[in-house]
Amino acid sequence: MGISTKVILDSSPTASSVAAVGAVKRRRLDSLRGHARRWLPAHLRTAFRAADTAAHQRLYRPPHFSAWLCDAAGTDGSAGTLSDRRPYLSALLGWLKRAQDAAAGAGVPGYYAFAEGWSAAYPETTGYIIVTCLEAAARLDDPELAARARQLSDWELSVQMPEGAWQSGLATTTPVPAVFNTGQVIQGLLAAYRAFGQTRYLEAAARGGHWLVRNQDADGAWRRHTYRSFPNSYSTRVAWPLLDLATVTSERRLRQSAVDYLQWATRCQDESGWLDRCTLEPGEPALTHTLGYAMEGFLESGVLLGEERWVRVAEKTAEALMRRYEVRGHLAGAYDRGWRGDHSYACMTGCAQVALVWCRLYQLRGDSRYLNAALKLNDFVTSHIDLSSRWLEFRGAVKGSQPVWGHYMTFRLPSWAVKFATDALLREEQALAEVEARR
Amino acid sequence: MTIAILTGHPHNPYAAAVLRAMNAHGIRGIHVLAAAWNAGPRSLTSLVRRHGTRSLSVGATWLAKRLMRPLRDIVRPRGATSGLATDVEQQGGRFVQVGDANGEECRKALAALDVDILVLAGAPIVRANILAVPRVGTLNAHQGRLPQYRGMNVIEWAIFEGGTPTVTVHFVDCGVDTGDIVVREEIGIQPGDSLQSIRARAADKQAELLAWAVLASRSGPLPRLAQRATEGRQYYAMHPHLRAVAERRLAKSYAAANGVPGSRR
Q1: Under an 8 Å CB criterion, which residues of A touch B?
Q2: Residue of B nearest to A327 (CA)
Q3: pLDDT of amino acid B161
Q4: Cα separation of A146 and A144, whole Å?
Q5: Best of B49, B154, B176, B235 to disrupt the A interface by mutation (most A CBs within 10 Å)?
Q6: Spatial separation of the C-alpha atoms in residues A172 and A413, rounded to whole Å
Q7: How far is it, in rounded angstroms, from Cα B108 to Cα B130?
């Protein structure tokens, strides 16, 4: 998820001395850059910045240069068509498998970065990747994915904090408990409990759930253990796993906690469907990524509770996005209040999440317009997935932004983008089967 | 009563069909205003925002077309030799070319012609400054049943959802397909129909219904059935996969509706 852009990458205890030397080098380089910017004539500064970025992002490496060049030339990868979505699913899942292998038995790395290569494992996204692996294992009849999901679940148990929470950021950073991350791991462990029937997964999820309840404010919001103590409205994706946990454990306080948050988050929505506080940083425009989280949380909570009002909240935002997408033919990377979009880039994770929500709304409402928009958006995402790249980090990867230098996860291939693209294609397949059945 | 047709292109075949249908009903002296279709970028910023890295090639294509226009006009002079323009002049009307359908030039031309009813035929979305000019109002024929099916590809959407393809003539207001309804007529499904053949028949029906509405307006006020904004849905361009599903559903449903004639409502 987006906050990984803010985590510190160099605090691995096993490589602390190397990291210290790296930090000194980086400081020197930063100082040199500062001097160069000050002393260079204005017309050379832009060229210097471009060269500096190219060096930092290692664009001299053929796979990096090739990815940059494709976006600079405006060429798509392989064209996605509905008749052959399965190869995309295989490629996406192949990328996730390779990512897990790169973390050497830990979780799934947060991302592949042009500048640094594979990141360390990321507990939060590993959590919800477990759900994707199990779903895909069942749908594509791939037992290897189920085995991998079990490994990931066991790893999550090993990194649970004593208080029951899971940490923010990558596994190599100093553990700091985080509300959102805990919610996502709970979801993964619940899926593992259902798939493998082992109570240790449920017990760990329950301890996480209790920690969430203990850290909730009286008005329903989560402020403690959130980034900059900012109460965001996308933690509906924490309320959803909490509700799911409540259905398994029959604990009323878990259910009440989730409902309290949903009520608080609903107050963030205005008449146009805009969701206030649906941002990573206070005052920033809302990424389609965080809007996707919020919508999915409301929607699935409504389904679990059997309460129409939460589905309507999700639908209001989803419809506003659909209208803008259809009129413009493009989903902005982020929208500010008043739905003014930043169309300089597309947030690929957000695109996949929004398509996922639209497919789900089609299934719930039978409104074909949602499916129609989802098909187009999935076409867009798949058209930028390279199925045959000779560089394995790029085969089946989904970029943070399109173009790759866009504002979100710049020059990175996040694991959660691959997760949501997989989810969106699996959901699309299901929705299309329903279209055929409805004849 | 002065009638004018507004179209988005000087050679629009649908506008020619509407004109012919009106002439066939004995309505003559109809003026036609043809806007130059201008899909070019409004500014360099909007070009870059919309097309990103493809801006250069999109901009170059647009510029090349603009530069070619004078050459094309030498080969095919504007006005007199165009088929639509000739038809207009032969039935006693004036053929006026304007730059932008929503521009001041178009508004002034309509005001100068003292138009009572403006008929849209292949025109872009028309704004309030133009809608304010005609005394009686502006009419449009929509390829869908209003208020249920607003927007694009609504014949396909109706078939996809198991509805009946319908044409609606309505007054135009500032919304999209939200003005008062004048008349609706279903398009019967015939043996061997495809989406394309139904669309073609719908276009003929649109021209016919517009001519009927204009004729009816001469003998008194047209019926007006108000639409509520909350009624119906706005549809958008249909994805090819769903279009294929609609085509299959059409083939399947035709047996049931085989040869059912259209009925005016």
Answers
A1: 71-74, 82, 323, 326-327, 330, 343-344, 367-369, 371-373, 375-376, 379, 403, 432, 435-436, 439
A2: B236
A3: 93
A4: 5
A5: B49
A6: 19
A7: 9
Task: Residue A224: count other Cβ atoms within 10 Å of its Cβ.
Answer: 13
pLDDT in tens, A156-215: 999 999 999 999 999 999 999 999 999 999 999 999 999 999 999 999 999 999 999 999
Q: Is the CB of residue B234 less than 8 Å away from at least one CB of chain A?
A: yes
pTM of the model: 0.86
- CB–CB contact A368 B157 (8 Å): yes
Domain residues for A365? 2-20+63-437
Chain B partners within 8 Å of A326 (Cβ): 236-237
Of A82, A330, A369, the CB nearest to B236: A369
Q: What is the CATH number of the domain that holds A173?
A: 1.50.10.10
Domain ranges of chain B: 1-135
**DSSP, residue by residue, A188-251:** HHHHHHHHH--HHHHHHHHHHHHHHHHT--TTS---TTSGGG---S-THHHHHHHHHHHHHH--
Judged by CB atoms closer than 8 Å, whether chains meet at A432 and B54 is answered as no
**pLDDT computed for residue B52 by the predictor:** 64
Note whether residue A117 is domain-resident: yes
* Domains contained in chain A, number: 1
Which member of A71, A73, A372 has the closest CB to residue B236? A372
A57 occurs within a structural domain: no
Residues 80-139 of B with CB under 8 A from A: none
The model's pLDDT over A132-149, given as tens digits with 9 standing for 90+, comes to 999 999 999 999 999 999
Q: With beta carbons less than 8 A apart as the criterion, state whether A40 and A52 touch.
A: no
Instruction: Tally A–B CB contacts below 8 A.
Output: 44
Note whether residue A15 is domain-resident: yes
Task: Yes or no: say if A172 and A12 are a contact pair by the CB < 8 Å rule.
Answer: yes
Select from A72, A330, A373 the Cβ nearest to the Cβ of B53.
Answer: A72
Domain membership flag for residue A43: no
Q: What is the mean pLDDT of residues A338-361?
A: 96
Q: What is the mean pLDDT of chain B?
A: 86
Confidence (pLDDT) at A11: 34
Mean pLDDT by 10 residues, chain B (265 residues): 91 92 93 77 65 74 75 56 81 90 92 94 91 94 94 95 94 91 92 92 95 92 89 93 93 63 44
